[in-house]
Design goal:
It contains ten helices and 15 strands. The chain is of the alpha/beta class. About 40% of the residues are buried. It is globular, with a radius of gyration of 26 Å.
Length: about 350
């Protein structure tokens, strides 16, 4: 029997239990989130932390490339010892004067100004940084398309309307976040748990040795040939060299990296047949280095497998020439970007 004037009160005790339950739930949720996100946490060299979340990705842009395009220094071109005959009869006897133009400018009729400037060729980037497409490819996801990407028919019409200008398509190769993420098993460079690996820019790479990578890139080259291009220049060619490389699982790689890259080039040449020249872009530092076990670079092994070698950012012409000659390109011709500066660059042989 309760004493008069006093009543039992349990509200504070109940509130305390509820608070304890809420706290425990929050702790469990935090622990679960950490387990899920631990493979996506990237510790930067300055001590900051970023998290790679795929649903925030989709415009092909990164902090280092806010426009989602290329933007590298334009290349120097060195031609390996070949018969010099292209798919449309271009030969080494005909000096190359190639202007660089965007897909958008090309489709707007900009090639006419290049011809007026004395160019006999043009180079346009159709697939660029991190797998961004500047035309609506059948191989590209919606997220991989750049703003303003043109249709294949529009680009085909523009290329075919250049009245005999040598048409060169610049194609980003293995640095392709969109396809690597979409096909981790068949194409992506992955971690030991099977999840996609990310580099220092939180982007992803394709493995040159995987069948999915080769089939995908062969289809892209087929599209370039169908659109009327005479030559394809492959960029981002090699295994990644930046990021937490120790997290990459290479246990399934049964050949060396160089052998995988050479096998890729050989297969692309077989697929292209006589429809396209297959060329390669390397940086000046790569050429001077010659070989690199991390990326798989081997200049001497690559030279016989490409129709032309483009070298970007050249500041030491004589050293570059000597490095190429030492790798087997004794009779190589050197082509430099000479006129027009960065706004309107032109390659002159």
């Amino acid at each position: 029997m309760a004493v008069r004037g006093y009543h039992s009160y349990h509200g504070r005790r109940r509130a305390g239990r509820v608070a304890l339950v809420v706290l425990l739930v929050l702790v469990l949720l935090a622990a679960a989130a950490f387990l899920i996100l631990q493979d996506r946490i990237i510790y930067q060299s300055d001590g900051s932390i970023t998290i790679d979340l795929p649903f925030f990705r989709g415009d092909g842009q990164t902090a280092s490339d806010p426009e989602g395009g290329g933007g590298e220094n334009l290349p120097v071109e060195i031609l390996p010892e070949e018969d010099g005959q292209g798919t449309d009869g271009q030969s080494e006897a005909e000096p190359l004067r190639a202007g660089v133009i965007s897909v958008e400018e090309l489709c707007a009729g900009g090639a006419g100004s290049l011809e007026q400037a004395g160019c006999n060729a043009f180079l346009t980037e159709v697939k660029g940084f991190n797998g961004t497409y500047y035309y609506i490819s059948q191989q590209a996801s919606r997220q991989a398309l750049a703003d303003g990407a043109v249709t294949q028919s529009a680009l085909t019409e523009a290329v075919e309307g250049t009245d005999g200008l040598w048409a060169i398509a610049r194609v980003g190769c293995f640095h392709d976040s969109f396809h690597a993420f979409a096909d981790m098993t068949g194409a992506g460079i992955c971690q030991s748990g099977g999840y996609i690996w990310y580099d220092n820019l939180s982007s992803h790479w394709m493995d040159p040795a995987k069948d999915g990578t080769r089939a995908y890139m062969a289809a892209v080259l087929d599209e370039c040939a169908d659109m009327g291009f005479d030559e394809v220049v492959l960029t981002d060619f090699g295994y990644p060299t930046l990021g937490n490389l120790q997290n990459i699982d290479y246990s399934g790689l049964t050949v060396t990296k160089t052998e995988a890259l050479c096998g890729f080039l050989e297969e692309m040449r077989r697929q292209a047949g006589d429809r396209l020249l297959i060329s390669l872009e390397l940086s000046e530092s790569q050429v001077l280095q010659g070989t690199d076990q991390v990326s798989g670079l081997d200049l001497e092994a690559f030279l016989p497998l490409v129709d032309r070698l483009y070298i970007s950012g050249v500041t030491q012409e004589q050293q570059v020439r000597a490095a190429v000659e030492a790798a087997g390109g004794q009779d190589a011709d050197l082509v430099l970007s000479m006129a027009g500066g960065e706004e309107n660059p032109v390659f002159v042989q």
